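Figure caption, in words: inputs first, then the predicted bound structure.
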Amino acid sequence: SGVITLDPGYKNSGSCKSEITFLDGELGILRYRGYSIEELAEKSHFLEVSYLIIFGELPSVERLEQFENDIRKFTLVSEEMKIILDGFPRTAHPMGVLSALTSALTAFNPKSVDADNEKDMYDAVCKTIAKFLVIATWTYRKSMGYPLNYYDNTIGYVENFMNLMFKLPTGPYTANPIIIDALDKLFILHADHEQNCSTSTVRMVGSSHAGLFASISAGVSALWGPLHGGANQAVLEMLEEIHATGGDADKYLAKAKDKNDPFRLMGFGHRVYKNFDPRAKIIKKAADEVLATLGVNDPILEIAKKLEVSALEDEYFKSRNLYPNVDFYSGIIYRALGIPTDMFTVLFAIGRLPGWIAQWKEMRENKEPIGRPRQIYTGYPLREYVKS
Ligand code: CMC
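Bound structure (carboxymethyl coenzyme *A present):
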């Protein structure tokens, strides 16, 4: 035993050593494997960044092609998975369905559970990237009552996302390239964020040697919450509510500052960034560009800007270093791209997938011990049982 240090929320505890992502919250710096996210978002694309995050180096042209081919080998999802999907009510939240379907993949892909040699690990990585995208979009098709679409191996991963989501049997479908570019960038910006709540969950579950799909399913559940990935949906719902009730952003700012009101300004604040979230900066710029190019004039964006300016000037937010985070602007782009609000967090999950995989793989390769925090017991001392 020995003295137990209490650290609720692990604010000052490191859970592992990691080579994947560097984050400096004071300076607002984020890098994957040493490359700045600004540069990656501008010059790379999502599957290349996924490879970098998972395997540690940027792939050669041939290696990347091989990786993309290997992913294509696994893009079919078992028909039985559709039966499981069918059992959910159409009103179910897509994140709940996604978590369940991801866990169900374990049953259909038993080798990915152990992934204890290089070949099985590599296949598990490719399988996860391939199948997760398909089932993620199926949660939307299900909620709409539309027939399910299949992955098209002749087009790219992000194009496939749009096809899987929106293609109808009644006609051809070609996604707008502006939308593809914007989504690609958004996925890159979400790809990893070191030991956040969902990633720590993936590592924790995996530390018991539970399989990759089971660990990622737990990560999806952790991401769902409004203090984490669910914030992107919550931000948009908040902005819509402000708009619907007359556009008074300052009223909501006052509510957020009121300690007797549980309301928080969604999309503001971060456990680690005590400066601008570098992802928010890029996304804000991209939101402006995408809305201008698509000719979208969204009053919600104006409210977001008003809210941001007021909050940044406010003593409450300044003294607590509360800045807009990645979720503040991402919802506005998703909305402009025609993504339904309850799918926002699913998009976050698709983007975060390479990070979860990389962190799980690193944890297994480093032979990390099972995660098992201690506690300080504050309950009753020994009591005698008295029959009533
Ligand atoms: N609105 C109003 N007050 C806030 C907010 C907010 N959004 N965020 C933090 N505070 C206050 C909080 O009340 C506390 O005040 P005091 O010192 O007077 O008690 C102080 O700022 C520090 O906050 P904390 O809750 O101790 O900080 P934390 O590191 O535990 O929480 C957070 C971080 C992200 C959960 C929190 O800032 C929050 O709830 N933000 C809103 C939800 C959100 O946007 N989440 C997305 C996070 S970024 C991407 C992701 O992870 O998905």
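The chain has 18 helices and three strands.
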